[in-house]
Every structure is written in structure tokens, then in C-alpha cells.
Amino acid sequence: MWRVIKSVLAAFFGVQKESRRHEDFSRGRASHFIIAGILMGGVLVLLIALVASLAAR
Amino acid sequence: MRMRLVWTAGLVACSGLSGSVLANGWNMPVGVTDVSREIHSLHMTIFWICVVIGVVVFGAMFYSLFRYRRSRGAKAANFHEHTTVEVIWTLIPILILVAMAIPATATLKTMYDTSEADLDVMVTGQQWRWRYDYLGEDVAFTSNLATARSQVSGESAKQENYLLEVDEPLVLPVDRKVRLLMTSDDVIHSWWVPDLAVKQDAVPGFVNENWVRINEPGIYRGQCAELCGRDHAFMPVVVKAVEPERFDAWLAERKEAAAQEAMGVDREWELDELMERGEQVYGTICASCHQPDGSGSPPAFPALAGNQAILDDPDYHIDTVVNGVSGSAMPAFRSTLNPVELAAVITYERNAWGNETGEAIQPAEIAELLDEQ
């Protein structure tokens, strides 16, 4: 679980270690990464909306 | 030593070049409002950040290309990835972007704060002129191109403010917050005055807001910045900023004149009076399509001289001018011209260039028609 989250965060940032990439592709399941990516994408949008509404106050 | 000389020469050349670019008016103007100054300084800050990034990145690249060329025996490194370096070159742009976004967002917030204005002016784009309504003051007028058509066709020399001059400028007070409400009667226009740092789309059916607080009296010129048809280049913006006391005096004068004009609707007008006024209106509004001599440019713009369809039927003539002809290039002038101007220009068209109906169309008649519709 934590490993999936870290990999999705690395994808958001755009940089990933080669060793972790190998690990993800050999051990992980695609559906886990996709679901985590969609959920965390939503969280990112909500975070940005929160920051924007705080700034606009 | 030689290297340092080359660098110094390069720097001198660069700064000389940028200096001349700024001095020659190729840069955006500093402008005459606090917002325009902020925008200019943001622009310059970001410009110099880009220059530094460009020099560093291309400098490193050219240096590497030169220093580690194959003829000097350089061997290519062979590695796949380097996480630390990748993290660094991702973080640095993020920090630079955030550093630029903070002051830029602060300026944007100021620009969008249209609250607590001292004066509201409605700016309406029309093909091809601007109309200004001083809301709540009963003062409204259209601002038409004042450059003679002979300068456009090259028959006479082009003057200094060629295509940047109007018959009636938008008069605004300095040191007061003026809210500009932008809309359009026909197609999308854009009201653009570089010195005020305002470029706002005027969209039919929408009201966009912007505001200015001008610091220095003066005349500021601009243009329509959204391609809006044949005479897009012929609808300039001229803003005349004056001291608040002078503005108040001007506004009072315009109100008085508007009241006079409203009274003029009820009285009986002589043919000569209407002809004189009509010639003026025709020259600013109609002549660009129907030509100063009424010959038109058929088939798009029919001739008015000797046009039996309008001469035989005054009602048809009046309806055409007031309501326009849908599906053609003829716009409705009911909101552009007042009843006196409408009556005058129709009378003029019926009695100029060999048209001799001898009819005087009375402003009262037009006013009644406008009320009914």
C-alpha cells in the first residue's frame, strides 16, 4: 500500500528510481496503481481548491 | 585574458542591444496607472529571469560542446539515470515558477478588484465604433474614427495620429477609480489601451469588467484588438484623462447638451437645419460604406443617390436605417444614433446628391416610432 502511494507520488513529481520501477513492474498490479492514481489525483484537486479558497479570502 | 575580453565585449553588446530595444518603444509601455506599472515591472522581472536562465543553460551547453569535443579526445559517459540530478532539475524550475507566480497572482487580484468605483462607464463595441455610456449620468455618445478617408486611400498624406484619432474621445478623470463595463452589440471586439494596461474583450450578451485609476492627465490611444470585420482597423480608442474638476465641468456640460438634444426632439425642424446635421452624421457613420457621394459599393452597399426604393417609400427608408436589414451588412442604428440624428441623416439622404424629395423627416416622428417598437 505505502509502496503504491510512494510510486504514484513519484509519478506526480516526474522522477522515479530505476530500481523501484523494476520492483513496481515485476511485483505490483496495474489496477492498484490506476486506482491509487485516480484517488490521489482527486485529493490533489481538492488540495489546490482549498489553497485557492484560503488565498482568495 | 582574451577570454575575459570576449565576455566583456559580449556583455556590452547585449546590454547595448537591450537598451536600444527598450528605448525604441519595442517593449511594452510603463503606462500611467499603478496596475500598468506593476504589470511592466513584472514583465521586466520575468524577462530578466528568462535571460539569466537562457544564459546559464545555453552557456553550459555551448561550453560543454566546445570543451568536451571529440577532436580533443573526450569520451562519452555512459549512464542511464541519476535520481539526485533529476530531482534537482525538477525542483529548481518549480521554485522559480512559484517565485514568479506569487507577485503575478497578487497583481491579478488587484486587476480583478472592480469594487468601490467612483464612476461606471459602459463600453459597447459596435461595427465599427465604440459607444460610451456614463451610467447614471444620462451622458452617452459614440466615438468614431476621425482620420479622413483620403489618408487611407493615399490621396493625402498620413498624419501623426493616423487611424488613432476619433471625433469624441472617452473623457475620464485622473485619480478616480473608473469601472469599465464592456459589452458588444454585434460581434466580439476588444478594447485595448496599452498605456492603461487594459485589453478586455467586449462580447455580445456578456458584461466584462475592468477598471482604471489614471495617474497623469493626457491622451492615451488604443485600438480594437479582436478581428471584428471589415473596418476592424478603423475603430480606434482615444482616452482623454483630465483633472477631476475639469471632468466634472465637462460632464455637467454634456448633461446640459443631452437635455437640450432631448428637447430638440419635440420641436419642428427646418429642412436646412436637418440637412446640416445630417451631413455631419452621414460623414461619420454612413460614408465609409455608402461613400461620401452616396454612390455606395454595389452589390454589398447599395447606392443611395437615385435609389428609387428608398425615395419612393419614406417608411421603408426609415425602417432600414432604424432597424437595419437582417442578413445584410446594414446594421440597426436605433441604439447608435438619437432621434434627432436619425431624422437628420435620413433627411440628408433624401435630399443630397441629386435626391430631391424636399421632405424633412421630423425627429418627433422617429421618436414616436422608437417608442412604439
UniProtKB/TrEMBL annotation, chain A:
Residue intervals passing through the bilayer: 33-56
InterPro entries linked to this entry: DUF2970
Keyword list, A-Z: Membrane, Transmembrane, Transmembrane helix
Name assigned to this protein: DUF2970 domain-containing protein
TrEMBL record, chain B:
EC number assigned by the record: 7.1.1.9
UniProt-listed Gene3D superfamilies: 1.10.287.90, Cupredoxins - blue copper proteins (2.60.40.420), Cytochrome c-like domain (1.10.760.10)
Compartments, record wording: Cell membrane; Membrane
Coarse class of the protein's main subcellular location: membrane
Catalysed reactions listed for this entry: 4 Fe(II)-[cytochrome c] + O2 + 8 H(+)(in) = 4 Fe(III)-[cytochrome c] + 2 H2O + 4 H(+)(out)
Signal peptide range in chain numbering: 1-23
PROSITE patterns xrefs: COX2, COX2_CUA, COX2_TM, CYTC
UniProt entry keywords in alphabetical sequence: Copper, Electron transport, Heme, Iron, Membrane, Metal-binding, Respiratory chain, Signal, Translocase, Transmembrane, Transmembrane helix, Transport
Pfam family, one: COX2_TM
Cofactor descriptive note: Binds a copper A center.
InterPro entries: CcO_II, CcO_II-like_C, Copper_CuA, Cupredoxin, Cyt_c-like_dom, Cyt_c-like_dom_sf, Cyt_c_oxidase_su2, Cyt_c_oxidase_su2_TM_dom
Highest rank taxon of the organism: Bacteria
Cofactor: Cu cation
Primary role: Subunits I and II form the functional core of the enzyme complex. Electrons originating in cytochrome c are transferred via heme a and Cu(A) to the binuclear center formed by heme a3 and Cu(B).
Protein family according to the UniProt entry: Belongs to the cytochrome c oxidase subunit 2 family.
PANTHER family cross-referenced by the UniProt entry: CYTOCHROME C OXIDASE SUBUNIT 2, CYTOCHROME C OXIDASE, SUBUNIT II
Protein name: Cytochrome c oxidase subunit 2
